[in-house]
Amino acid sequence: MSTLETPAVPRAVSAQSNVFLAWLAGSLASCGAVTFTNPxxxxxxxxxxxxxLARAAPSAPRAYHNVAQAFWVIGKNxxxxxxxxxxxxxxxxxxxxxxxxxxxxxPAKNALYSAFTGRPSAGQSIMAxxxxxxxxxxxxxxxxxxxxxxxxxxxxxxxxxxxxxxxxNYASSLDGLRRIWRAGGVRGxxxxxxxxxxxAGAGSSVQLATYDHFKAYIARTLAHRGLTDNSAYTHFLAxxxxxxxxxxxxxxxxxxxxxxxxxxxxxxxxxxALYRNPLQCFYKTVASEGxxxxxxxxxxxxxxxxxHTILMFVFAExxxxxxxxxx
Length: 327
What we know:
Layout: H1 11-49, H2 67-83, H3 87-117, H4 127-157, H5 173-189, H6 193-221, H7 232-262, H8 278-289, H9 298-326
C-alpha cells in the first residue's frame, strides 16, 4: 500500500518565505510599538533642538526642562495630538526601517558568515559579523525611510506654544512631502539621509547583534527553568538588556540626525542653512554646546527606545511564530 508523501518545498521558496515573514513581522511589530512610544519621540526631538548652537547660560529661558516637565507642557498645551505628532510618517518610517532591518538581517548575516567562515550562521555566533550585518541592514532601512523621517522630525518640532528649532509648519505628512519636493526635488527629500544612515547603522549594529547574543545567553543560562530561544519571556529579557546600550551608542548620532533633518534649506536651496554634513554638525554642536550636548534628550530617548525595543522584538517574535505555524 503506497503512502502519500508531502512534496519538499524548494529551498529558494522557503528562504523567500522566511524573508517575507521577517519583513512583515518587523513592519507590524514596529508600527505597534511606535504607537505607544511616539510621545517620547516628540519630547526627545524638542529637547535635542532646544538651545541649538547656543552657548548655555544659567539664566537663559528654556521651554523644556526635563522629560516629565516637557511631557506635561506639550500635553497641557497641545493635547494628545501634540504628543502624537508625526505618527503617520512614523509608521511609514518604521515599515521602511524595521521591515528592512529584521527582514534582511538573517540573509545578510548568512551571507557574511558564508563569505568569512564558509558556512551559514546556524550553530555559530561571531559578534563582529553580527554587528556588520546589523549595521548594513540598519543603514539600508534608514536610506529607504529617510523622506518619512525628515517629515516626522519637522512635524514633531513644530509648536505654536513653545517652538524650538526651525518651524516648518506642515499641515500634514502629504503637505510636508509635497512642499519638500517642490522646493528641492529628490535631493530635498533625501537631505540628511547620510546622518540617518549613520544613526540607524550604529543603533542596529548594537541592537540586532546584541539581541542575538542576549537571547542565546538567556536561553542557555535559564534552560533549567524551561526558557528557550522561542520563549516570549526570553525575548522580553533580551530586549530589556540591550535598550540602554543601544541608546548609549546611538544618542550622539540621533542628535545630529534630528538637527540635520530639521534645519531649513540654505540660500542656494541645496545644502542646509546650519550644517553642510553630519561631521560639521558634530563639530559645531560640540564647539557651541559642549560634548554632553550630544546626549541631549538621552532619558527621553531611552524611555522611547527601551519600551520600543521590548515591544518590537516581543511582537516580532510572536508574529514570526504564528507565521511559521500557519504559512
